[in-house]
Design brief:
Blueprint lengths: L2 H13 L18 E3 L1 E3 L3 E2 L2 E10 L2 E6 L4 E6 L6 E2 L4 E5 L2 H21 L15 H25 L5 H47 L2 E3 L4 E6 L6 E2 L4 E7 L3 E8 H4 L7 E6 L5 E14 L4 E8 L11 E9 L3 E6 L4 E3 L2 E8 L2 E13 L3 E6 L6 E3 L12 E3 L1
Parallel strand pairs: 1-24
Antiparallel strand pairs: 2-23, 3-18, 4-13, 4-17, 5-12, 6-8, 6-11, 7-10, 8-9, 10-12, 13-16, 14-15, 14-17, 15-16, 18-22, 19-20, 20-21, 21-22
Helix pairs in contact: 2-4, 3-4
């Protein structure tokens, strides 16, 4: 094989090896330059973020049970029902508790009658104003009057010693009866307070026959059935509050110091295009020893209840909203064997740059982490036919 044939074969071989990472360089001279469109890389505001995975949790979750025992007479909600704070969830049969209220009220009126205040609007009464004490006081005054008269007559020799002593004993007995009347009134007042408390308790039990929602939310489970006898604290329904919803994240210790209260958190769910933005509201005071991570919580608006507790979520936390960086169009990047590169125009020749990209930004752009600097003329759309050293014409 002569020398000319070998040169011809070499030229054919090298012309077929022009892949993205071929070392072949097209001569700067000769051939028609390829038309390309370029843009200049400039620094722009690209917020710095850190990413983490976590779980969505209900802001509030409670299992509502029966505070009293009884048979479930009505159930107003079921799985998936939306409820408002104070809304009736269930009702317990009331008959027994109504009877207890009447009984307690009757005992209250009985004590009020003994105190002589049944016709009064309140329970305020002075011991001296009650009939019991007034009667004892009258008897005491009479006994004192008899005693004083007997003492005077005894001094004058008109009354015998026996009659004088008898008057004195009657006076002492009247004083003791007066003190006993005062004690009886105090006892009745205490009894009235006790029976008032018993009436209030009976009324509270009657009110507890109506089971209400403690907060607005949705029913996730109904445990009771209509007609079922419920013991005290028997669960009836479980409700959750989903707005705002809570996002719990584990942040690695090496970057945990950059997380602050109030930072923006963007939430992304797998298989869902809808994204939500919230704020960091809670930071754990300690690092978890086993996972070497910091637990944080964010609150995410969820008025439409689209986000559900228990869902797995990916989150991006904006740690520096004023950070500067470079961004390029997605179509400027050429990917081959897992390596990313872009083409820049230097004079009228192409140069390739190995780059590392980060997040997808708005407008079909990519964040550039490394490989480029400001002021470069980057080809707007990379094509497979481009090679390093190729002559181009900027349009």
């Amino acid at each position: 094989m002569n020398k000319g044939t070998l040169l011809l074969l070499f030229a054919i071989f090298t012309s077929g090896c022009t892949g993205p990472y071929s070392n072949t360089e097209v001569a700067a001279k000769g051939g028609n330059p390829l038309p390309v469109r370029v843009f200049r890389t400039t620094l722009e505001t690209i917020p710095e973020v850190i990413t983490a995975n976590g779980e969505l949790l209900a802001e509030e979750m409670a299992t509502i049970g029966a505070r009293i025992s009884g048979r479930a007479s009505k159930l107003h909600v079921d799985l998936g029902s939306k409820v408002q704070a104070g809304q009736v969830l269930a009702e317990i049969q009331r008959d027994d508790y109504e009877f207890r209220v009447r009984q307690a009220d009757a005992l209250v009126n009985q004590t009020r009658a003994q105190l002589g205040i049944l016709d009064r609007p309140n329970d305020n009464v002075k011991a001296e104003d009650t009939a019991i004490v007034k009667q004892s006081d009258a008897a005491l005054q009479e006994a004192r009057l008899v005693y004083d008269t007997s003492a005077q007559l005894s001094k004058e020799g008109v009354l015998s010693r026996f009659e004088y002593d008898k008057a004195r004993v009657r006076r002492d007995a009247a004083e003791a009866a007066y003190q006993s009347a005062l004690a009886q009134v105090m006892q009745l007042r205490a009894q009235l307070s006790q029976r008032r408390a018993e009436l209030a308790l009976a009324q509270q039990n009657l009110d507890d026959c109506i089971v209400r929602a403690p907060f607005s939310g949705s029913v996730t489970k109904r445990q009771a059935s209509l007609g079922e006898y419920l013991a005290v604290n028997s669960p009836i329904v479980t409700i959750v509050r989903q707005n705002p919803i809570r996002l719990r994240l584990e942040i690695p210790e090496r970057i945990a110091a950059r997380v602050r209260m109030g930072q923006a958190v963007d939430v992304h769910l797998q298989g869902v295009t809808l994204n939500r933005t919230g704020r960091v509201v809670r930071l754990s005071p300690a690092i978890e020893a086993q996972s070497r991570s910091l637990t944080i919580e964010a609150e995410i608006p969820n008025e439409d209840s689209f986000l559900r507790p228990g869902s797995f979520a990916e989150a991006s936390i904006t740690v520096d909203s004023a950070a500067q960086g470079l961004a390029i169009p997605t179509e400027s990047v050429q990917v081959f064997a897992g390596t990313e590169r872009v083409f820049v125009v230097n004079g009228d020749l192409l140069e390739d740059r190995i780059v590392k990209t980060g997040r997808h930004l708005s407008g079909e752009r990519l964040e550039v982490i490394s490989g480029l600097e400001p002021g470069l003329a980057v080809v707007r759309k990379a094509e497979d036919r481009f090679t390093k050293g190729q002559k181009v014409q900027v349009q």
